[in-house]
């Protein structure tokens, strides 16, 4: 994959991200399956739905609450004639998107990109949150991080960056509870 393609895919994924507020008043980054379907190169909803169902099964197998990451919903869409009709859709967290990418068609270039995109973006958010927590803790002790000598070596950083699915899931903000 060349740099231009990577930039185009990143722009596409970033462009369909939405933000909602959960019960803790945190901004949760979400995607809608119908929009993600197109970006991942799936022409038919039925084919993409199979991938979503595999991702949901993967989530269950890991013992993770599916409702925290996958939310079924319906949307009104306008048809070519101007009429409107309901279609099913699904609201997805970053972790749900990661699982969808892991369960997608590996022959699709878009899937290969999505696998790293969702893992890397999640790790970036984790690192920012970790740094803010450490900065706050040091600040309470009167220590300014920018005045400390650079003591971390590359191997230490590589170990810290290497994450697994549990870390991704735990760091992903959950969807608001269902109103039943």
Write a concise keyword list for the protein shown above:
180 residues; alpha+beta; four-stranded antiparallel β-sheet; 52% helix; globular
Explain what the structure shows.
The protein has 180 residues and is an alpha+beta fold. It has one domain (3-171). The chain has helices spanning 3-15, 33-39, 45-61, 94-102, 109-140, 154-161, 165-171; strands at 18-21, 27-32, 70-78, 84-93. The protein has a four-stranded antiparallel beta sheet with strand order 1-2-4-3. The protein is globular and about 65 Å long. The termini are far apart. Mean pLDDT is 84; it is low at 153-158.
How much of the residues is beta strand, in percent?
Answer: 15-25%
Unreliable segments of 5+ consecutive residues: 153-158
Tell me the helix content: 40-55%
Overall pLDDT: 84
Class from secondary-structure proportions: alpha+beta
Distance between the termini: 45 Å
Number of DSSP helices?
Answer: 7
Got a strand count? 4
What's the number of structural domains? 1
The general outline is: globular
Main sheet, how many strands, which sense, barrel?
4 strands, antiparallel
What is the C-alpha radius of gyration, as a whole number of Å? Answer: 19 Å
What order do the strands of the largest sheet run in, or round the barrel if closed? 1-2-4-3
Name the helix and strand elements from N-terminus to C-terminus, one letter apiece.
HEEHHEEHHHH
């Amino acid at each position: 994959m060349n740099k231009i393609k990577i930039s185009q895919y990143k722009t596409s994924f970033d462009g369909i991200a939405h933000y909602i507020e959960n019960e803790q008043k945190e901004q949760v980054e979400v995607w809608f399956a119908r929009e993600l379907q197109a970006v991942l190169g799936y022409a038919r909803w039925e084919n993409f739905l199979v991938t979503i169902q595999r991702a949901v099964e993967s989530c269950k197998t890991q013992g993770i609450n599916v409702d925290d990451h996958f939310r079924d919903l319906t949307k009104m869409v306008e048809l070519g004639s101007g009429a409107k009709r309901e279609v099913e859709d699904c609201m997805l967290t970053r972790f749900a998107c990661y699982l969808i990418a892991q369960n997608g068609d590996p022959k699709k270039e878009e899937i290969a990109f999505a696998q790293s995109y969702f893992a890397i973006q999640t790790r970036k958010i984790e690192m920012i949150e970790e740094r803010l927590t450490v900065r706050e803790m040091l600040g309470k002790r009167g220590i300014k991080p920018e005045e400390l000598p650079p003591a971390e070596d590359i191997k230490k950083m590589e170990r810290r960056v290497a994450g697994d699915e549990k870390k991704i899931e735990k760091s992903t903000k959950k969807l608001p509870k269902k109103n039943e």
